[in-house]
Amino acid sequence: MRRSLLREHIFILVFMTEFNSVEEMPETMRLYFESLEEPADDASEEYIETKFKNILGKLTELDEKINEKAEGWTTSRMGKVELALIRLAAYEILHDEDVPTGVAIDEAVELAKKYGQDGSPAFVNGVLAKLVG
């Protein structure tokens, strides 16, 4: 499975945490994997699950950093799509040495174009630029 598709699945799971408790997420994740039109192979599923759990483990830290840098915004005021994308990219920028910063930002912006509203790509890009700047 391509890295961009793996990232998209992780984004969707991070997005789902806004609507499900952490305790519900293992079952939610299982149902999500079962619902995929093109099933993930074992290695892809493991990659998605591991990275997703790593992001969940760092949510408090990620939100603190995002709130620090997002001028005039807090994570509680951000749209759920944008927040999930920013959290994923922030994790990749701060904690995933395998993902170059530019790739993390570019991929988040592309997903914002697909899942967000008209202003989402610019908003996501702006917050992430401040995070790395």
- Uncertain stretches of 5 or more adjacent residues: none
Q: How many helical stretches?
A: 7
The whole-angstrom Rg is: 14 Å
The CATH topology is what? N-utilizing Substance Protein B Homolog, Chain A
Q: State the CATH class.
A: Mainly Alpha
The rough form would be described as globular
Estimated helix fraction = over 70%
Give the domain tally.
Answer: 1
Keywords, please?
133 residues; mainly alpha; N-utilizing Substance Protein B Homolog, Chain A; 7 helices; 72% helix
Chain-wise SSE layout:
Layout: H1 3-16, H2 25-35, H3 42-57, H4 59-69, H5 80-95, H6 101-115, H7 120-132
Helix pairs in contact: 1-3, 1-5, 4-5, 4-7, 5-6, 5-7, 6-7
Short description:
About 70% of the residues lie in helices and about 0% in strands.
Protein described:
This protein is 72% helix and 0% strand. It has 133 residues and is mainly α. The chain has one domain (3-132): Orthogonal Bundle (N-utilizing Substance Protein B Homolog, Chain A), CATH 1.10.940. The protein is globular and about 40 Å long.
